[in-house]
């Protein structure tokens, strides 16, 4: 279900919007919010609820790893998009789970008319690091339904 109104969205976002995602704002178009669900470094798997305002999306990026690695997205509220390079965008709704292998260039974010949240799970691996690439162009984003 789409939520254009933040207050209505917050009623269904079970994990909470969290704080402005200032540390990574340079890699997002629009405003995103981050609420860690596990403590980085104290748990072998880092989980965070990431919330996107309407039209917000992150840049194309790659989760590199020597072995293992990658990311899981567990969609929890609102509606969004996920796209791998060279493939059609996938509509995200609550309950959708996306498995992103290491070395796959992709982006994810909110639909133009809805707030959106997903739990991001960093898959453990060897020598994991993220490479942030170019923004998703308005032209390409606006082609999505």
Automatic annotation (TrEMBL):
Q: Which UniProt keywords apply?
A: DNA-binding
Q: Which residues belong to any copy of the AraC-type arabinose-binding/dimerisation domain?
A: 66-127
Q: Does the keyword DNA-binding apply?
A: yes
Concerning CDD domains, the annotation shows:
cupin_HNL-like
- Gene Ontology molecular function, alphabetical: DNA binding
Q: Which GO terms describe its biological process?
A: regulation of DNA-templated transcription
Write down the PANTHER family for this protein, in alphabetical order. BLL4564 PROTEIN, RIBD C-TERMINAL DOMAIN CONTAINING PROTEIN
What name has this protein been given in UniProt?
A: Cupin domain-containing protein
Natural source organism: Lachnospira pectinoschiza
Lineage start:
Bacteria, Bacillati, Bacillota, Clostridia, Lachnospirales
């Amino acid at each position: 279900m789409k939520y254009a109104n933040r207050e209505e969205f917050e009623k269904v976002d079970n994990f909470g919007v969290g704080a402005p995602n200032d540390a990574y704002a340079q890699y997002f178009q629009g405003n995103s919010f981050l609420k860690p669900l596990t403590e980085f470094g104290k748990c072998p798997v880092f989980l965070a609820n990431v919330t996107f305002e309407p039209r917000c999306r992150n840049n194309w990026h790659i989760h590199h790893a020597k072995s293992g690695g990658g990311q899981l997205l567990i969609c929890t509220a609102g509606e969004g998009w996920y796209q791998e390079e060279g493939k059609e965008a996938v509509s995200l709704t609550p309950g959708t789970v996306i498995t992103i292998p290491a070395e796959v260039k992709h982006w994810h974010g909110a639909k133009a008319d809805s707030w959106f949240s997903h739990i991001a799970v960093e898959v453990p691996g060897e020598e994991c690091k993220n490479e942030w690439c170019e923004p998703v162009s308005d032209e390409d984003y606006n082609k999505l339904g």
